[in-house]
Design goal:
3 domains; single chain; 238 residues; alpha+beta; elongated
Length: 238
């Protein structure tokens, strides 16, 4: 290393003091200037927005990129020009196909993100109505969409949506347990929803079990009580 410094001194015509000053300046430089400093504040750009439409919430992913990302029609016109050689046509064909693949990838990414976000919002729609969050894992969304957990994790990582409750980080919609107290009316509404969507009539025990999947732990007797209150007959009479 000393020999290299001597070579640098000779080439740059520096004395001992000059080479030391140079080394000190080099030490202050960032060897990886493109690395992002985690402490640096970065502007959050939302991926899209959540809009209430009737009784549902619809996700719209920002399509600014796909809007501006279009194939220049001039290149396709050039392709039919008799002035182009076969070699130039092959080159142009290759570039056009590559551009089309990029555009297709961006469009498919947008559609996939919309599907992922919509599944999450559909599951957590009560959050936008009354602030309640259901227990939800990335695994649940992955299984529903038939993709890997890592695919879902990458899709939501660092993503935000504009909602009626402000800017929401999508990862915050995944919780292990309820973040708010559960009202009696909320539980009754959930029982109604479960019965409405049943394929075959469910017993009170089965309803209690399904409520447990949503983090609502109540006894079979309580399910029976609430069901009778809202005038829904038992599984044998439904």
């Amino acid at each position: 290393l000393k020999r290299k410094f001597n070579d640098i001194k000779k080439k740059m015509k520096l004395d001992e003091k000059g080479i030391k000053n140079l080394i000190e300046k080099l030490k202050k430089l960032n060897p990886k200037p493109l690395n992002l400093n985690e402490k640096t504040n970065r502007k959050i750009i939302p991926e899209g927005k959540v809009v209430k439409e009737g009784n549902t919430f619809k996700v719209y992913v920002d399509d600014k990129i796909s809007y501006f990302l279009k194939l220049n029609s001039l290149y396709e016109k050039y392709f039919s020009s008799p002035l182009l050689s076969e070699k130039e046509k092959r080159f142009l064909t290759k570039k056009i196909e590559r551009a089309k693949k990029v555009i297709k990838f961006v469009e498919e990414r947008k559609k996939f993100l919309e599907r992922v976000f919509q599944e999450i919002i559909d599951y957590q729609k009560e959050f936008f109505n009354n602030g309640n969050l259901y227990p939800l894992r990335e695994k649940d969304i992955a299984e529903k969409m038939n993709v890997s957990i890592s695919t879902i994790s990458r899709a939501i990582n660092g993503k935000y949506l504009i909602t009626s409750k402000g800017l929401v980080r999508i990862k915050d919609l995944f919780v292990k347990e309820f973040k708010h107290s559960i009202s009696r009316n909320f539980i009754i509404a959930k029982i109604k929803e479960i019965i409405k969507n049943e394929n075959t009539p469910l017993s009170d025990k089965e309803i209690a079990k399904k409520l447990g999947y949503f983090g609502i732990k109540i006894s079979v007797r309580t399910v029976n009580k609430y069901r009778n209150e809202i005038g829904i007959p038992n599984s044998y009479l439904r």
